[in-house]
Request: fold
Amino acid sequence: MNAGLRARETGADGSAPRGSWAWAYLLGEYAAGVATAVATALPIHALVDRDWDMVVAMLAGTVLGSIAHVLVLGVLGPLVGFFHVMAPGALIGMYGGMLFGMRDSMQAASWSQTVAFAVATGIAVVVAVQLYDRALRSEADGSGRQETTP
Amino acid sequence: MIDSLRAKWDRASRTYDRATCSDHFRFGAAKRHLFARMRGRCLMLATGTGTDFQHFPSGLHVTSIDISPGMLARARGRALAYDGRLDLVRADARTLPFADGSFDTVAAVCTFCSVPDPVRGLRELRRVLKPEGRLLLFEHVRSRLAQLAIMQDLLTPLTRWLGPDMNRDTVGNAERAGFRILREENVYLDLVKAIEAVPL
Reply:
């Protein structure tokens, strides 16, 4: 079960269910993912042209994405949860940045296309991380000593 | 070393509650589930501002330590609100001021990401734990997913300056310190884990 959904069952202090908070956190995860992706894609789009070498563009994208990830983590981490922002944000910043750099070195996309591609990438990565989280917590790790949290 | 560590956590104590409020809320249920296994005389490490006291079962006798006077000062109100006996003590996890085999349960939340020599700290816990005692850890660790682990390694110099390391192998450190792992539960991905261990 997703940590946000688990939070819906009871409050952290054992109080009554707090469904609205669970959904707020879930939305926050998507907002953080989209914010990281857009904050990564825009400076890359401004910097990288079609005449850039693709490898250099990908490396620049990774560096800019990692910086964007840390900035978004600093702002949204306290609001959404550091780990829930960090994990998708790391993937979006590092590997999404690489993808955005490659894309901008291959084609002349408009700003709106760049933002739309970034939003789609951010949402896709957050969905993938949530599915991976669910899978990790429902399967034993092979050591025979892992249990899932009820 | 201890002075700089104390100063770092005293600084962090001013913003700690605000910076970590979402994590405390989101992981509350998992912490309650872990701490439900607390029994007898208990030791809590790295008290922080005491936000985890609310997850303890009621009626226990808990000795709660922290290296930072700033953190302990902020924890005082929450200690008084606990439905049981809760003593706050200023101490370093690597040199605990307790006799061998003093505790039935030792609990720690996000502690061994910050203790400078984690294996030494865990050996010290083994010393103060009774042979049939339980170690309960709620820790963030280095992911086994390489793509995430690389980012944790890159972030660690920055986060170490603010507080914790992001890439510790706390499960391995507990085994190296002489514990046998009974349970290792993934709380969020494989980054945040609830761990139950016993002395070998």
Notes: The helical segments of chain B are 2-13, 16-26, 28-35, 69-81, 118-128, 146-162, 170-176. The domain at 2-199 of chain B is CATH 3.40.50.150 (Rossmann fold).
